[in-house]
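Closing statement on the fe (ii) ion sub-project.
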Amino acid sequence: MDTATKNLENDHELILRLIEVIVKMTRADNFNIAHFEKAAYIIRNFADGFHHSKEENIFFPMLAKRGFPTRQGPVAVMIHEHTEGRDLVKKMSEAIDQFKEGDSSAKEVIFYNALEYCKLLGSHISKENNILFRMADNALSDSDQLQLLSDFGDIEKSKRNEDLKRECIASIGEFELVYE
Ligand SMILES: [Fe+2]
Ligand SMILES: [Fe+2]
């Protein structure tokens, strides 16, 4: 059976590919500001705007209905980490703007915040995949999982989000060819 947790894990695979290639971007000989700009765009729009909003607006509320506390415990930690991630990508984007305005020292700030983001998201996804989603699979009924999948589908099938996902997959694939 397709499950909502599996659907979220599929998003994670793409986000893990992105963070792996961002780490390589920070180690590359050639610094390409446009690639960091695009990476920040994918984080803001796909990892956060698309994936984290599926978790925060659909998945976590269902967990709350099935007895998971939201002000403490694993769901609260996950929400807190989403906020930390938003803060890091905001700082990364601000540094990208500074670099483009001629401040070459902003490059180190871009690298620092990009790498902190990758570290945070790597551990966040591992906690979701290995702990929270397994707890969720035990707590959710088959009909809960189907309801969640249907609600995710409403978001995923919008033209804007279909185009966004296609764009992100294409860009990550291009990065992977450049940064081996
Ligand atoms: Fe999350
Ligand atoms: Fe997630």
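The domain at 4-178 is CATH 1.20.120.520 (Four Helix Bundle (Hemerythrin (Met), subunit A)). With this model delivered, the sub-project is considered complete and its resources will be redirected to Aim 3.
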